[in-house]
Design goal:
By secondary structure, the protein is mostly beta strands. It has a single domain, classed as Beta Barrel (Thrombin, subunit H). The protein is 0% helix and 37% strand. The protein is built from no helices and eight strands. It starts with 6 loop residues before the first strand and ends in an 18-residue tail after the last strand. InterPro entries: 6-blade_b-propeller_TolB-like (IPR011042), NHL_repeat (IPR001258). Keywords: Repeat. This is Strictosidine synthase.
Length: 114
């Protein structure tokens, strides 16, 4: 849920995408990842930061809308936490994780999550 309570964000693990659901209109839109033309495409995945459908995620399994309005994504098979700005740029970028699975605490650039 966003900070206004009017938008719900959801992950779609199988299609490796993040969608926004407008609670006022009932509509939905693709924010990041996935295939913008064929939502059932399960083979458009990877690890690429960017904007919109140029973003590649791999089986995201969680989203959180922070108090700052930013969306934090658990990009599970890439072993990273990514951040999406839904209001302005729609840009996604890695904020933590190396891309390697592990159990290593530390600075965001060296931390490893399983």
């Amino acid at each position: 849920m966003d900070v206004t309570g009017l938008c719900y964000y959801r992950f779609e693990g199988e299609s490796s995408s993040i969608r926004a659901l407008d609670l006022k209109t009932g509509g939905s839109r693709l924010l990041a990842g996935g295939d913008p033309f064929f939502a059932e495409n399960l083979f458009k995945f990877g690890d690429h930061d960017g904007a919109g459908s140029k973003v590649l995620l791999q089986h995201p399994l969680g989203v959180l809308c922070g108090k700052d309005g930013q969306i934090y994504i658990a990009d599970s098979y890439n072993h990273k936490i990514k951040k999406l700005d839904p209001a302005t740029s729609k840009r996604v970028y890695t904020v933590a994780g190396t891309g390697k699975a592990g159990f290593k605490d530390g600075m965001t650039q060296i931390a490893q999550a399983w």
